[in-house]
Amino acid sequence: MSNYQVIINGYQEPKKRLTTDETYKLIDEYQATKNEAIKDRLVNDNTKLVLSMARRFYGREDSMDDLFQVGMIGLIKAIENFNTSFGLKFSTYAVPLIIGEMKRYLRDNHQIKISRSIRDLAYKVLKVKDSYITKLNREPTINELANELEVEPSAVIEALLSTNSVSSLQEEVKNDDGNNLKMIDSITDDKTVVSRTNETIDLYDALKSLNQKEHRVIKQRYFEGLSQSEIAKELFISQAQVSRIERKALDNLHNYLK
């Protein structure tokens, strides 16, 4: 990592950023040749992405450099494993890996400090959530919370995540066999994280293969949490028809992912 240690305040963004096609070409070339000069160019072109993520988690003046460095590890892993055939933006793939490295560092070394704005939003989200449960006897979807609070869904997710308590990785938890297990021993390795990210992209790609009605039903059923009867009312069709559309869509997804 020493090759990528920079003075954060002195970072200068490249005058000309790589296009998506140029990024794809360089990543394919680097993965085939492991040419360090190509990796350097990709890293430098995406350093601003790491900086923007680091500022989101920044809570201690003496840890900013370290936070940036571990974020660079996530960026390099993204360069190593990104599959250009998905046709996805590189940043979409890289951000979860960068954030994952930063969160791991913060959990290992510091208590994460949540900004006031996120704490305030989290309080509002929980109030709306409780209201939904009381009135409708169900939890609201992310989109419902976002619409109610007039914010982006990603902001709702970030606020909800901020309410999760942070545990020490050395903390012992009960295992199924009655023995104690340290939390760090239950964490998946980096290859598994990358694999799951790839699986998510595979699913995203598979969803695009569905027709408009199938895509809508799957989205409302599994991403928005609507029942078949609720979807039937929206589409002005019977619940049995929704069930058939859902079943066919799931079969198509299964066949595509095979």
Automatic annotation (TrEMBL):
GO terms for molecular function: DNA binding; sigma factor activity. Residues 225-247 form the HTH cro/C1-type domain. Belongs to the sigma-70 factor family. GO terms for biological process: DNA-templated transcription initiation; sporulation resulting in formation of a cellular spore. Keywords: DNA-binding, Sigma factor, Sporulation, Transcription, Transcription regulation. Sigma factors are initiation factors that promote the attachment of RNA polymerase to specific initiation sites and are then released. This is RNA polymerase sigma factor.
